[in-house]
Amino acid sequence: MADQKLHPSLSRPSAQSVAFVLTVTAASIATLPNIFSTIDSVATIEICTTPLFPEYLSRSSLGWIRLGFSFFIGIVAVCRCFGPMVALHVHYLKGSKLTRSLVFVGGLRTQAMFTSWSWNLLGISFAFSGLLTLYVDDSSRKYNRDEMMALPYIQWALRASILLFEISAPVAMLVSAVIKYAIWPRALASKEGNTSSLKDNLTLFQHNSNIIMSLMEAGLLGGLPIRLADIALAPLFGVTYIFFSWGMRFKWIPGETHFIYFFLDTTLGKTSTIALMALTAILMMFHGIFTLVDDFIALFGEGVLINSTIVVILSCLFCRFRD
């Protein structure tokens, strides 16, 4: 019979899972020198701070919208921390050595979920790019473009703006996809069919607004680029959370072993490794989708209407609000 009170050794990640995660980590780190040596080709004032449609949106407006997104994300994160405790129904897969249980999450622990990691990173990304855009807009009245680019902190800020969005956008898409196509259907298929924790207002904001805001940035606002050459960045963020989740397995309920995401269950053996491989592959695919957004738009012809239509269609593919 499955038992969540396992000896610690029985819930250790399998050798295959450890080998896979270490391989992804090493491969991702190996690409960093090339990423950093070529990032300046896109880390420019024009690319990072110019609206896609300057006839409708000024540079200062772009900066304020980005900051507005960041403020909204921060408010939701704070409300999550100080809001009521959430009861998570974890439905483990067949073959798991763990039993289904309620995991109560509140306070700072709400920030330990991958959804919160993704949400907060997106907020940091928008705060960074928003402040940078407003600074460039203000400085352009005093300095010319070359003088601004000569400032060392401007170049680093431009690089960070690109890199943060390259990580946060695909990760946001992964969160929305996993909720819509994996966690929500599994909750509905369970004996209780309880999806109340997924329909909480703050949860709906996080699972849906993240992908909507990311797509709006890519297709309607500033169009921060996501380069195919930087495809290892998001997986590196992902494996960081995997290491974190392994360390947290004894923390959710003291004295017991639990995972808040059924697909990270280390007691599944090879199934767990396959799940990690699938998640990594999907995350890389989502990076590719963001890379191709510009190509999709160019295929149908650029314009506010075309871009808006593509953003709405992609948002509908990843958002879910009800059973």
From TrEMBL:
Annotated keywords: Membrane, Transmembrane, Transmembrane helix
Membrane-spanning segments: 67-92, 117-136, 156-183, 224-246, 267-290, 296-319
UniProt GO cellular component terms: membrane
The UniProt record lists the keyword Transmembrane helix: yes
Metal-binding in keyword set: no
Highest rank taxon of the organism: Eukaryota
The protein's name: Uncharacterized protein
